[in-house]
Amino acid sequence: MPAWKDVLTDEQIWDVIAYVRELGKGNTALIDQMQVTQQDEMLNEALKKGAITEAQADTFSGCAR
Fold first, then answer.
1. Does the pLDDT value for residue 65 go beyond 50?
2. Is the pTM higher than 0.90?
3. Which of the pair, 27 or 58, is modelled with greater confidence?
4. 63 CA to centre of own chain
5. What is the mean pLDDT of residues 24-36?
């Protein structure tokens, strides 16, 4: 994925590849878990940076699940 080399890390590129492969298999349970994991990582990063409060993180977490 050369067009994404300056946007995504190698790990993120492989995550996208794994996601697309699972889509092709119709494995929605794994995809759902991958999305929850990614959302949790994003919320934790936003909390660390002070971009959101714990209450906001709880609200966002509850909406998506």
1. no
2. no
3. 58
4. 15
5. 78
Contact by Cβ (8 Å): 8, 1: yes
Both tokens assigned to 53: 């409060």
Higher pLDDT, 36 or 28: 36
Contact 58, 50 (CB under 8 A): no
Q: Could you state, in order of their start, the residue ranges of all structural domains in the chain?
A: 32-65
How many other β-carbons are positioned within 10 Å of the β-carbon of residue 43?
19
CA distance 10 to 60: 27
Burial class (CB in 10 A: 0-12, 13-18, 19+), 50: exposed
